[in-house]
Hints:
heterodimer, A: 113 residues, seven-stranded mixed sheet, 11 strands, 55% strand
Amino acid sequence: DAGVIQSPRHEVTEMGQEVTLRCKPISGHDYLFWYRQTMMRGLELLIYFNNNVPIDDSGMPEDRFSAKMPNASFSTLKIQPSEPRDSAVYFCASSSGGQETQYFGPGTRLLVL
Amino acid sequence: QKEVEQDPGPLSVPEGAIVSLNCTYSNSAFQYFMWYRQYSRKGPELLMYTYSSGNKEDGRFTAQVDKSSKYISLFIRDSQPSDSATYLCAISRSNDYKLSFGAGTTVTVRA
């Protein structure tokens, strides 16, 4: 299996622009997680889905952030409008049902200027 | 107060030494304990997980949980330069897929 796939791997954008991050989970996994990692705050869960349905979005920082999972093999995290403080590494992870066994993707490094 | 506290280090040890990493947590409701390893510019990868107090071994790695003290540890025996990475502890409640991560401890094993 190819593992969790994320795109783009790097994104540089200007403040106010819309940013869309993409994730393809491991085939057969029914849980999908979006995390953000910064030096200041560490690794934080933003939102997670089960069978394409958002279960907990309490970690989403603001209304500027939104996430969707239109099908079992694709999810997006959108930031509109982006701000410099959104600069971070965003990880997607998936799981087949064991809460302890989440498999992480390589991450998207976002820099908002 | 953060749900889980972890000393960020950094920690530098010579090859062959035992590496000892620790985390403390604040709520006894946490029942699942995990250690992830993260190499530079990569995603975290699961090393070990456990549900109960006591020790769990996997090769050179031992995870230890003391629920009474709310204290978890990871020991790496015979450390190798390839063990150089950031190690993150993570905890979760039973039937809750939300993981709370420690800050991560950066370890360097010197050849």
